[in-house]
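Limitations

Structures in this collection are predictions, not experimental determinations, and the ligand pose is part of the prediction. Treat each record accordingly. The example that follows, with beta-D-fructofuranose as the small molecule, is included so readers can see exactly what is and is not provided: the inputs are given verbatim, and the output is the predicted complex.
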Amino acid sequence: MKKNMFILLLLITNNIFSQELYKEKYRPQFHFTPQKNWCNDPNGLVYYNGEYHLFYQSNPFGNQWGHMSWSHAVSKDLLHWQHLPVAIKEENGVMIFSGSAVIDEKNTSGFGKNAMIAIYTGHTDTLQTQNIAFSNNAGRSFTKFNNNPVLNLHQKDFRDPNVFWYEKNNCWIMSVSHPVEHQIEFYRSQNLKDWKPLSKFGPVGDTSGVWECPDLMRVSIEGTNEKKWVLFTSQNSTMQYFVGEFDGTKFINENPVKIFKQDYGTDYYAAITYHNTPDKNPISIGWLNNWNYANSIPTSPWKSTMSLPRKLSLKKINGEWILIQQPVQVTEKLRNEAFVFVNKIVEKEEALNFSGQVFELELLFQPSSAGESGIKLAVGNNHFLKISYDATDQQMIVDRSQTNSSFNKTFASINTSSAKIKLQNGKLKWHIYFDKSIVEIFVNDGEAVFTTQIFPEEDENNIQLFSTNGNTKFDYLTFWKMKSIW
Ligand code: FRU
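Predicted complex:
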């Protein structure tokens, strides 16, 4: 009886604790965040037995980068997450840097049929090597391989192994980064323990920052049964993708030589994908922060958020392969009632009779043919986030310069992102997810994405439409207040 009372009390206090935990200022309500402590890159995204595993870079001891380990959460629907204990810990001064995870269906490694195997970088100040750890209980605990490292070039910068099973040649393929050289190297293995070099890709495209977190995957071409190979890299502090072919040895880029970005916003980095989803189409998750100020964002007791999971496809537009990204539809389950506005002509500025900081919004509008037009979110106390289309330069702009940035000078200085965007029949479609301190904007059904962090006060929650030079016609705006996943 006493024991039961104790358990009941524990459950109640746990519940109260967790409710308060997810109610802090700035805390996203439908994006993944750890309960507490620092987090960065998603790691080891793998699907197994009805569960999506999300491992991630974390500091189990504090809210700043350090003591890097793999923390762990699981989800059945990519929306609601259950936190699990830290999966792979820093040990003997070796930190556990980013990497991937696979299910060894054929027991190629000898760790057991369907063992979950994590492939990660072991980091010290002078050396980075590739290592493996295995789990025979669906990722609930891992054992580090006693013959680690499995790949050692005796280099200081050599990291972020990403592995998948390459059916065609019956082998594992690893992409791994030489950050300073701006190169991705491919390796092959029969057993995840012995690795043979195949080829290197790069430097090419964006080489303005060190290359990190590669991911090579096959993505469906919309409207066909075909697929092409896509390679992701992250270069401090944005991402780029290449589209082409992988022949078992090397990756051949087929896109023109220019920079193709997953996300034009200020806060999207280190995204990798679930390769082995039930329908075999990759789903990506990115880290919504920026190394230039990541440690200084004003959130506590946690730091950093993961993106909504994005499903990927390809479209050829004007001779270029474009990555189409759409949030997985399960977020629709969170919608409360809809607030709809139709056929609004805006001449200068108009406040909407709707407010909030946790909502999904879809809008279609015909920008004025001159000047800037669009929407302001988080309006209040002379602050706002401006999302606009500039007809003169035919570009879309996300401008957070008028939001609270007093906590950090670098955050204040990195305040605007923009990209050329083509109107469709003179119109622009935005699908916006506003979640307290996160704004993800999917443009024209996923042809471009902008993700940005903002840190508004709770009463900065009004919304305005604007048009600086001429009329802008808003065909419709549909808002849904969103339920919390916590
Ligand atoms: C990318 C990164 C990786 C590294 C990890 C360390 O954000 O720098 O290259 O493995 O973070 O936390």
